[in-house]
Amino acid sequence: MARIGNRKNDEIRDIKITRNYTRYAEGSVLIEMGETKVICTASIEDKVPPFLRNSGTGWINAEYSMLPRSTHQRKIRESSRGKIDGRTQEIQRLIGRAIRSVVSLDKIGERTIWVDCDVIQADGGTRTASITGAFVAVADAIHKLYKSKAIKEMPIRNFVSAISVGIVNKTHMLDLCYEEDSSAQVDMNVIMTDSGEFVEVQGTGEERPFSRDDLNELLKLGEIGNQVLIKEQRKALGEIADEILGVD
Ligand code: UDP
């Protein structure tokens, strides 16, 4: 059965990363993965949470939100309900962990980098697009700190990106759109570095448990997708792509 948009099973959607998308944040990106669109900003704050005070170490925190009309049906703003739902909590923690996994926090001094991912249009894979876009925004923000001599060395050890994979109608496929995601028997988010190592794998066989062979196949697709994404991140960072990695 042909995929929506006639994509091959190992093909990601058209991707576009626009840097410096908004004016005020130190790093700001619009990432588009097909019809999924997320604005990711990285903001530097010159203080850390209480548990890190006087430690010389910094922190990276992430927040995630979907605009009310980013989805088919209007979604009530969490701020007007007064509480953050479980899905949002899970996603923002995932984004924070992914970005922290590639940054040496002791090299950013006592600063917090706030990552804000705001989904303006959702068509599946919003958490993975958030991670891929957030990395570029954070790289820009950290690069600015470095250029202003606020930090002595680049603290970024690796690129990090993320993509969804899944099993839909018994077929393993890469980068599910909403329609595919909602009929998937297995879905998985694969977060990887440019060295081909895994940062996190979130997989659920809610509709049907999956085998080791399925897992291997899905991880292979995840690898293919992340390799393409990291190339796109490099392309978006242009002349600073080689400068953002630290020496060790
Ligand atoms: N979605 C939605 N409303 C919601 C949550 C999700 O319309 O409250 C849609 C949206 O297109 C999203 C997709 O369902 O991208 C898959 O959601 P999931 O929770 O799996 O997260 P995602 O794939 O976006 O990371």
TrEMBL record:
Q: Show the catalytic activity.
A: ITP + H2O = IMP + diphosphate + H(+); dITP + H2O = dIMP + diphosphate + H(+); tRNA(n+1) + phosphate = tRNA(n) + a ribonucleoside 5'-diphosphate; XTP + H2O = XMP + diphosphate + H(+)
Q: Keyword check for Kinase, yes or no.
A: no
| GO biological process assignments | nucleotide metabolic process; purine nucleoside triphosphate catabolic process; rRNA 3'-end processing; rRNA catabolic process; tRNA processing
Q: Name one GO molecular function term.
A: tRNA binding
What does the record say about how the cofactor binds?
A: Binds 1 Mg(2+) ion per subunit.
- The residues that hold phosphate are 87, 125-127
Residues in Exoribonuclease phosphorolytic domain copies: 11-141, 159-223
The record's subunit annotation is:
Homodimer.
UniProt protein name: Multifunctional fusion protein
Organism the protein comes from = Romboutsia weinsteinii
Q: Span within the entire protein?
A: 1 to 248 of 449
